[in-house]
Automatic annotation (TrEMBL):
Parts of the chain that traverse the membrane: none
GO BP, sorted A to Z: immune response
Protein name: Chemokine interleukin-8-like domain-containing protein
GO CC, one annotated term: extracellular space
Keyword Signal: yes
Length: 93
């Protein structure tokens, strides 16, 4: 195969991957218990379902001052709902 054709095919494949939002999802591998203080500092949260791409159920907490989300046990979902912390939105308590 001509080198120009190979280069063109590789370039088009790279462009297709970049432009179609093809990414590897970041899933929680394990969960941990979270203190009530950290729950109150959470700016927002998302629920990770095992019925989708990820292997386990988890609550992803986006805590103020931390760059990465914290993976919490799914039992905290009800408590977060009681704290009126809306899913996926920023709310101050």
């Amino acid at each position: 195969m001509d080198l120009k054709v190979v280069f063109l095919v590789v370039s088009l494949m790279t462009l297709a991957i970049i432009s179609t939002d093809a990414y590897i999802p970041k899933c929680c591998i394990k969960t941990r218990d979270i203190s009530f203080w950290k729950l109150r500092k959470a700016e927002r949260w998302e629920f990770q379902s095992s019925a989708e791409v990820c292997d386990i159920d988890a609550v992803l907490l986006y805590i103020k001052g931390q760059k990465k989300p914290t993976c919490a046990h799914p039992k905290y979902k009800k408590l977060l709902e009681k704290l009126k912390l809306k899913r996926g939105t920023t709310t101050s308590l």
